[in-house]
Amino acid sequence: MSWRVHIRILPRAGLLDPQGQAVEHALAALRFPDASNVHVGKAIALDVAAPSAEEAERRVRTMCERLLANPVTEDFEIAVEPGARA
Amino acid sequence: MRVAVVRFPGSNCEPEACRAVERAGGEAVYAWHRDTELPQVDAVVLPGGFSYGDYLRSGAIARFSPIMEAIRRHAAEGGPVLGICNGFQILCEAGLLPGALVRNAALKYLSRPVDVRIERTDTPFTSAYRPGEVIRIPIGHGDGRYVAPEALLDELEARQQIVLRYAGEATGDPSPNPNGSLRDIAAVCNPQGNVVGMMPHPERLADPVLGSDAGHRVFVSLVSSLVRGER
Q1: What is the pLDDT of residue A3?
Q2: How many other β-carbons are positioned within 10 Å of the β-carbon of residue B107?
Q3: CA dist., res. A59 & res. A81, Å (int)
Q4: CB-based contacts of A34, cutoff 8 Å, min separation 6
């Protein structure tokens, strides 16, 4: 079975995120003072062949730990949905 | 005394690194990232540049190059390894050095001279400097902010693994810590001291024709440590 996996990577909580701060300041300047706690990260999407959603998530977690995210500076979240990208 | 300078796709400081090694009396040879063995060498330099276009994170893809296993073995046997700028980023990604290098706090690429203090002179790359000496050498990076968990930073201090710190206060640099590195860290080493990574580029200022050769003694340190057979 094929699974579409979305990985969301954000700077580790507590680590200075100057990009998030700059965007937050820009939002405030555009009169969105209601926006706070802005963080900028990256999104990675990929198809994985695996027998189950759990197995797909396990594989992608390993990919994140080994390559896709840096455990010192980044946190990641994984979302699995059925089917490959059309 | 032979020193391998490793070329990754996107390395761009390797000729300067070779020249700096040779001016200090060593012989420099290139090693290719796809090689699985190092040539017969006494030390390894990972030069600056933008390996794999800095895709994903600086150094994140280069660390899986075939040559890295050979470098890991060389380091484990006590062989000296120096990572400069992108080379430092690769060594951190590879886990050969602690911590990580992330986007500069001001979000700008920085290319300018900085003052750094030599915190440790018992490494193969700093022994020709005086303890506490401040030298001015260039930086050129977008991702040079050194970060690590607080507990790890305390350990690095306790084990004296901080080799260089940004130190422009004394000379009136308006931005003495140019990139926001935690605890002003510009260079660290592994617990054994044979693997060193630094963000500044000593190889770019290693010939008096440039007006200063403040970085020259990094390579003098290396060549003399090899001559003394310290490994």
Answers
A1: 97
A2: 11
A3: 14
A4: none
Contact of B62 with B8, CB cutoff 8 Å: yes
pLDDT band at B230 (very low <50, low <70, confident <90, very high): low
pLDDT value of residue A83: 86
Token pair, residue B189, equals 């080493």
Confidence tier at A84 by pLDDT (50, 70, 90): confident
Average pLDDT over residues B133-151: 97
- Complex ipTM value: 0.88
> In the structure encoding, which two tokens stand for residue B219, read together?
């390579």
A 49-78 residues inside an 8 A Cβ radius of B:
67-68, 70, 72-73
Q: Does B61 score more than 60 pLDDT?
A: yes
CATH of residue B158: 3.40.50.880
Domains of chain A: residue spans and CATH: 2-82 (3.30.1280.10)
Identify which of A49, A68, A67, A59 has the alpha carbon closest to the alpha carbon of residue A7: A68
Residues of chain B that touch chain A, judged by Cβ-Cβ distance less than 8 Å: 56-57, 60-61, 64, 92-93, 99-100, 102-107, 145, 147-149, 180
- A24: Cα separation from own chain's centroid: 19
Total structural domains within chain B? 1
CA atoms of B43 and B87, how far apart (whole Å): 14
Q: At residue B231, does pLDDT exceed 70?
A: no
Quote the CA–CA distance of A3 and A57 in Å, as a whole number.
Answer: 9
Instruction: In whole angstroms, give the CA distance from residue B1 to residue B45.
Output: 13
């930086």: which residue's tokens?
A: B139
Q: Which of B61, B106, B147 sits opposite A15 (nearest CB)?
A: B147
